[in-house]
Amino acid sequence: MESKYCRESRSVHTSRVFPNDFNDHNTLFGGKLMSDVDLIASIAATRHSRAECVTASTDSVDFLHPINPADSVCYEAFVTYTGRSSMEVFVKIIKENLMTGERVLAATAFLTFVALDENKKPLQVPEVIPETEEEKKLYETGDERAKRRKERRDLSKNIANFFTTKKPWD
Fold first, then answer.
1. Is 52 exposed, middle or buried (0-12, 13-18, 19+ CB in 10 A)?
2. Residue 169 in domain
3. Dihedral angle at the C-alpha atoms of 125, 126, 127, 133, nearest 10 degrees?
């Protein structure tokens, strides 16, 4: 299978923030941002694999600066690292004050997607080739993040054995 450049999966979406997108602090709802992150990341994963993709995990979302009413929000996503059928997608979220033009990194996120074949079984994906300094840094550190994801997934599976599915009122 032929490798692909990070840029081949790059997806960008800029949106304006409206009053119904804000919380009581007059900043963007975290859940709204997370929903938009998942959408743009799914496009990047699908572009890379050219297959149906499902979100396997939201590995991290780090809120760095609040997004305010005068801001637009630019989401930039691309595949940074791959396994056999999984893809790590990085999303950079930049807020821009539309009145001043000031741009600030507002949040970052890492998600993992799995490509599926027509039978909904995991499908092998192309390896990724980084080109820019940003892409290279993310690629070089991808193996460590993959190890942490596996450890966290194993821990989640182990702890899930303690959870009940009984109705709380029974």
1. middle
2. no
3. -110
- Can you give the residue range of the structural domain that contains 14? 4-160
Cα–Cα dist 139/128, whole Å: 8
Taking a C-beta distance cutoff of 8 angstroms, is the pair 38, 82 a contact? no
Measured between alpha carbons, how far is 84 from 127 in angstroms, rounded to an integer? 8
- With H, G, I as helix, E, B as strand and everything else as coil, classify residue 118: coil
- What tens-digit pLDDT sequence spans the chain (170 residues)? 799 999 999 999 999 999 999 999 999 999 999 999 999 999 999 999 999 999 999 999 999 999 999 999 999 999 999 999 999 999 999 999 999 999 999 999 999 999 999 999 999 999 999 999 999 999 999 999 999 999 999 999 999 998 999 999 98
**167 within domain boundaries:** no
Entry pTM: 0.93
